[in-house]
Amino acid sequence: MGHQVWIKRAVMLALVVTVSACAGRNRQISVEDSTSPQQIIAMANAEVERSKFARAGDLYLEVERLYPYTVEAEFAVIQAAKAYQAGKKRLESRAAAQRYIDFYPAGEFAALAHYLVALSYYDQIVDVGRDQENTFQALQALRIVLERFPNSEYAALAAPKFTTALNQLAGKEMEVGRYYLKRGQFPAAIGRFEVVVNEYGETPHRPEAYHRLVEAYLSLGLRAEAARAGARLAAQYPDSSWNGAAQSLLATGR
């Protein structure tokens, strides 16, 4: 009987130890209504140091909940956006950054907030064979950073990303244009290639777009339009292999 009691006590002790250990691992830092904003920010900063970015973001937002429209709240909201971004919580980062923009449009961290919105989209850009909605949204958000905050450090960070996003969208137009061209849908193909040369500026896809315009116009028997596209290609990219190919097409008429 005593032996059985000892076993039961040992089992209960093991369960208590296990539960206590799990509770320690899953312990959440408690924020009371009386906790000062400085204390909450210190807690959040500690979570950042531990790379617990999602938890840090949640804590930063507690400052705004408890102390709205304060200097500490403004600081905490942008810190939340940064923490979520570091933790790859892109939707949460975008929401916090957008909240900053909505409540503090002329605030000290407005440029950073717009950049974080752009980054939340940019980090989700996929290859040209897939939908480019995130690329388009990134481009628009990056444009805001470049145009509204041209002298900020975030404009310098946004510039190469803007170029990458622009090239990505131009690449998507080229892919669709080539699809139409291959299937003999020449007007649709021309529309795509015209977008690349007229709306996307200087991208690596532009010489090919001119060449494809020559090809498409010749396929429709529109030699004058083909010649104009070829002339623009020759003037802007005389050393491009696409120029040589386009001039050969124009010389043979096919």
Explain what the structure shows.
By secondary structure, the protein is mainly α. The chain has a domain at 184-254: Alpha Horseshoe (Serine Threonine Protein Phosphatase 5, Tetratricopeptide repeat). The protein is 76% helix and 0% strand. It contains twelve helices and no strands. α3 (53-66) runs antiparallel to α4 (71-86) and α10 (206-219) runs parallel beside α12. The longest helix has 30 residues, at 153-182. The chain is elongated and about 80 Å long. The N and C termini lie far apart (101 Å).
Distance between the termini: 101 Å
Low-confidence stretches: 1-27
Number of helices: 12
Looking at how many chains there are and whether they match, the oligomeric state comes to single chain
Arithmetic mean pLDDT: 87
Indicate the CATH class of the domain at 184-254. Mainly Alpha
Q: How are helices and strands ordered from N to C?
A: HHHHHHHHHHHH
Which homologous superfamily in CATH is the superfamily of the domain at 184-254? Tetratricopeptide repeat domain
Q: According to CATH, what is the topology of the domain at 184-254?
A: Serine Threonine Protein Phosphatase 5, Tetratricopeptide repeat
What is the helix fraction of residues, given as a range?
over 70%
Q: Roughly how many Å is the radius of gyration?
A: 29 Å
Largest sheet: none
CATH architectural type of the domain at 184-254: Alpha Horseshoe
What is the tally of beta strands? 0
Q: Class by helix and strand content?
A: mainly alpha
**Rough outline:** elongated
Strand content: under 5%
